[in-house]
Amino acid sequence: MKMWSCTDPAVGALRNLVGAVSPDSLVSLGVLPRLVHVLREGSVGAQQAAAAAIYRISSSSDMKRQVGEHGCMPLLVRLLEAKSYGAREVAAQAVASLMSCPPNARDVKKDEKSVPNLVQLLEPSPQNTAKKYAISCLLSLSANKRCKKLMISHGAIGYLKKLSEMDVTGAKRLLEKLERGKLRNLFSRK
């Protein structure tokens, strides 16, 4: 099979195929390296379709592990910076799902851009549909002290206060976790 040219229709067709063909069959056909190539080199539309295909393929923990081993996590984190709301949402959805696999969560934790990119997705505008996935990812990362400090320094508390008022799922819980850590640090200083 030749490497795809990065055209939106080809990747979109693959994304649609994922529901009809078993993920194991697709992986055995060498789809993952091609999706990685599209995430790395494709247009934003093709990257969005590739991220959606990765999300759909990654239904089992074994498949999530394989996706992570192919180097998808840093590419999906980079896609969180896209100008397109749709691309950011699909990337955040894929990252949130893939983080249930511990090695993938470690990759996200190590990536310097992950926390700042995820915090930016907390923007409370109605067009931003990625915020619920960003909250899910940040909740997973909030157990790590370094990540928690990064969230606070990048303005997560301000966003989360607005999202809590809007009753966005998980916002209040994440806000409490971040503020609890802030209070503890305040009292531990001399």
Automatic annotation (TrEMBL):
InterPro entries: ARM-like (IPR011989), ARM-type_fold (IPR016024), Armadillo (IPR000225). It holds the Pfam family Arm. Transmembrane segments: none annotated. PANTHER family: ARM REPEAT SUPERFAMILY PROTEIN. This is Armadillo repeat-containing domain-containing protein. The lineage of its organism: Eukaryota, Viridiplantae, Streptophyta, Embryophyta, Tracheophyta.
